[in-house]
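Researcher: Here's the sequence for the chain we discussed earlier.
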Amino acid sequence: MKRDLILLREMINAAEQAQSLVEGRTASEVDGDRLRRDALMWNFTVLGEAATLVSDATKVRFPTIPWRNPARLRNRVVHGYWSVDVSVLHTTASEQLGEFVRQLRDAAAVLEVEDEQPPVSGSEASGTDE
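Model: Thanks. This is the structure I predict for it:
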């Protein structure tokens, strides 16, 4: 689970960075600023790649998180970057990532608590005294 926790944190960071890149700017302004546009595409790439690497066990535990959406968007950015509609990225960052980040934070909080728990020894796990 530690790996998944690292991946969730990376996803949160990438999503928040994407949000900050579009904050207070129109899609046209983002599209016209090559550095900002490229940074936005990069953060969506990181977000999607990390989403594909999260274990199936974690995905099953948190079924309300739309795990496939970032991966699909990542594939579009990576394989069709010359024709990516920046307005789609802008809308996603400004209108959809807020809820997504909230869901990721909730999942990360659960994994953090579990990560802090000491491992159960053999006798404690079996309920016997040795």
